[in-house]
Sequence to fold (500 residues):
Amino acid sequence: MTVNADRAGGTGRTDGSPASPSPDGLRRELKVTDAAAFSVGLIGPVGAMALLGVGAAGLLGQGATWAFVFAIAGVLLVGYGFIKMSRHVSHTGSVYALVGRTIGARTGFVAGCALFMAYATIGTGSTIEVALFFNKVLSRLHLLGAGTSEWIWTDLVGLAVVVALSLSEVRVLTRILLCCELVGAVLVGVLSIVILVRTGTGHAPGGRTLGWHFLSLPSGTGFGTIAGAAVFGFLAFAGFEGAAALGEETVNPKREIPRALKITMAVVGSFFLLAIVGESVGYGSTSAGAAVFAAAEDPYGSLADQYIGSAFGVLLDLVAAFSVFAITLGTVNGAARVGYAVLRDAGVRGPAVRLTRRGAPVGMICVTSAIILCCAVGQRLAGTGVVDAAFYWLTLGTIALLAAYALATAGALRFLFLGGQRRAPRWQVVVPLLALAFIVYTIFKNVVGVEGPYRVFPYIALGVLAVATLVVSAVPGLAERLRGRIAQSEHEHHLEPEES
Fold:
């Protein structure tokens, strides 16, 4: 494959030392903090919790916390496969390369398409969410009419900024993502602690008190309902594996990427538990309080108004807008790197696989952003409200993401335990088996018995995967090219022995 003339250049290091370029022009310059920042930014924990706790409360009432406990357990199981495999495979294609290396190039291509679809659709939902929270800020400041429902113009501006920032150096990108989330996480943490202190000391509004009601489930709630609600927790964690897409841009990736994944799961999981407990306790222990929580469009703002003050509520809405903006920034760049890797390995040439001098996959950034633009504009032309529009795309993305996770976990199971060489202690085989069961059951609960537009989302995801399967099977020589490139990449990026 021919390397474009503008793919190389620059040092990429702020300390003056040269960045190590990959054979195709991606620059190997990131450290563990950068990789973790990319995953955290792609998750966007502050923005994720701004609405997803509401979704869980709609199913579990006061016990919305259980949806996140369930999801954290599942993500830890799924994360096992990513951590183990990242010690063996470092590739910008993430799931595409992991599955291609372990199951086969055809299945890897399908997994890559699933991950690209997941990032693009989650990016669409988060782009729409930017308008939801930013318009609330403008409304609170009386710069926008309270009844104004238009959201597309804010999204267009936000998406244009995303494209501009995406063309910068990847190190700059990870710093922006980290800053967006760090400030918001501190403010949400302050709100949660204030809520716990005031309810614990008897100074909460409405006489609300601190207790264990946030672990109480509505009468008749079964395991299946909790698993169904866990889709909101899974969606909150969407992108935790994002660091794997930096496998060709990270120094010592087979050591640093697994560390970044561990850091991401630990930090984000802790934040989610603090935030969901704070929200549940803040709305009160009664069924009426849980109903208000489940109907809230702005839980951060409404709780801040009650427990701290309206100015803090405006600030929280602003950081929520920046957080979902960071999700869009992360998903656009994650999808671009996965798409670039698949097309590059398939032997595609031209603008779609072009890199800038700074190492950004500009062709796929533009393609991904165009897809998000078309989806968002189409949703607005259909007259969908901003909240429904966001949830539609986020849910579709979660289903596609779960499919990618299932294939990656199956690949890890095969590679680690079922090959000629066992690469992990035998007793650990239970971890990927439980992860697969968890993923399959969660998909099942979000396919069977759902209503409205959500009924068709599994079929959309299945259709995309079917088309991907048809393409990789029908195009002459495609699977062989992918297989060769994955093997070549494994040889090129074998920088140091894996950790024990």
Summary: Strands lie at 20-21, 27-28.
